[in-house]
Amino acid sequence: MGWRASGSNPNFTPDAQGIFTAVVDLAERLGKSVVPLVLSSNDAFFAIARTAQELGATEVVPRQVRQAVARAPAESFALRWGAVEPDPDRRMVVRVASEREDLRYEL
User: Fold this and answer.
1) Which residue(s) pair with 94 in the sheet?
2) Any residues with CB less than 8 A from the CB of 106 and at least 6 apart, and which?
3) Which helix or strand (DSSP H or E) is residue 9 part of?
4) Which of 76, 71, 78 has the alpha carbon at shortest distance from 93?
5) Which helix (H) or strand (E) holds 59?
6) Residue 41 confidence (pLDDT)
7) CA gap 10, 16 in Å, rounded
8) Rounded CA separation 103/13 (Å)
9) What Rg do the C-alpha atoms of the chain give, in angstroms?
10) For residue 28, what are the CA distances in angstroms to 2, 32, 43?
11) Distance CA 27, CA 45 (A)
């Protein structure tokens, strides 16, 4: 499957725009490049897992919902990862970061 730009401009909320801007700014300060990728889905964790699998990613950082316990995003992602990754030996790190903690789970 080849990736291509759709040509449409996503309608970001102010919060989403702030997150994208902060990521790009931080990457530039560190001398890194980043390519923002916007996906539409009714199952965000499946979309992240499928995209990570297609891109050969080794780490994902899903957004943590404030009310959720820290491991909930990692557990949700792990279920979807198992559905999309055919190689049981392939390692994936799920990083759940918040203002108070930075947790890493290896799948």
Assistant:
1) 60, 105
2) 91, 92, 93
3) none
4) 78
5) strand 59-60
6) 85
7) 10
8) 27
9) 15
10) 27, 6, 31
11) 24
Q: Which residue is listed with tokens 């990521």?
A: 23
Dist. CA 45–CA 94, nearest whole Å:
11
Question: What pLDDT score was predicted for residue 73?
Answer: 82
Per-position pLDDT tens, the chain of length 107: 444 555 556 677 788 788 888 888 999 999 998 877 777 788 989 999 999 999 999 999 876 555 456 678 888 899 999 999 999 899 999 988 777 778 889 99
Write out the two tokens for 24.
């790009």
Would you mind telling me the total number of residues written for the chain in this entry?
Answer: 107
